[in-house]
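As noted in the main text, all predictions were made from sequence alone. Below is one such record, for Serine--tRNA ligase.
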Amino acid sequence: MIDLKFLRENPDLVKENIKKKFQDHKLPLVDEVIEYDKKAREAQQEADDLRAKKNQVSKQIGALMAQGKKEEAEAVKAEVAQISKRLTELEPLEKEYQDKVLEDMMKIPNIIDPSVPIGKDDTFNVENEKFGEPVVPDFEIPYHTDIMERFDGIDLDAAGKVAGNGFYYLMGDIARLHSAMTAYARDFMIGKGFTYCIPPFMIRSNVVTGVMSFEEMDAMMYKIEGEDLYLIGTSEHSMIGKFIDTINDESKLPYTLTSYSPCFRKEKGAHGIEERGVYRIHQFEKQEMIVVCKPQDSKEWYEKMWKYTVELFRSLDVPVRTLECCSGDLADLKVKSCDVEAWSPRQKKYFEVGSCSNLGDAQARRLKIRVKGEDGKKYFAHTLNNTVVAPPRMLIAFLENNLNADGSVNIPKALQPYMGGTEKLIPKH
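Prediction:
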């Protein structure tokens, strides 16, 4: 959510930003906010003036009664009654106008960074840089579930009977590999100075609306029936929520946290063959990183964070590239974002395995995450998040890039301590 004062003073800039995000249907919201904000402030000013007048006039009643001026006292009482009546009319109006302003402000997208490429959808995303040499071996690479089945490592049929489509059982070496990746990612981020955290896996609605747009919430979140609770779609939501309604000492910033959690997503819509198996699913696990920092430091942290993910993937012999997300592909709260994509030698192209985002003060403004500076003044923090690793997709990239012609899978040195020293997985079939 952007600053209301900024919108008042720069309505044309806010409208231009909406156009850059190809959300022209939201343009009327800017004028609507200005109109209702004006009404709210006028109602508040009138109410404040009336309250002051009521207090002043009320003091006269006792004095008039003491002087025996009963009729004048009654007239003043009538005036107070009229003021009270008007106040009862103004107070709900003031709240109605303020609520309307907030409702519209929650729908207006954040101001994007000037460096963001302009485009309607992800087809306009721009490749930044490649890391590692993408290789296509001279043998055929099977679909990722077929590789896993050679190790008796996955059971989709049983999961379908138990929970439906979009779920899976991982077994044996593949399950161990999955856990090894999350453990390695955890220690990797601790080594970067991040504090390890296991957060709540459910959050309340005020946290949900604090960290994402309404459109994202509807598309992603599972609600617990009869409770004000939602299953998290990604752990940065509960991690950022940890700081809700806090005033933080500037000297203690930045807060750098890395979290493990299961994640739950609706994943609506039909998906092609490449998004089946364990690519696009309703339940998965992930290692995440978040940063809460001073506004002037967020750009530097953004660069650090996506580079951590690249470093981790390269340590596991997986080539990757980064894509700069265009304006139309940015969620409403994001200032800037890039995707990290892993190389798929089977598909002969890259696919998304993580995303790094700078959200400016949008989440902090919604959740009231404030910082107290040395001068005693308070301001909103900046928040950032980034995927360290999401093992289901990482499993796909890892298996394809470390597969040998005989069906065995190499375990890079960085991961071997988490696999009991195993250097190579041998298929059972």
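The chain has two domains: 4-105, 122-425. The chain has a mean pLDDT of 93. These features were considered when defining construct boundaries for the mutagenesis experiments described in Section 2.9.
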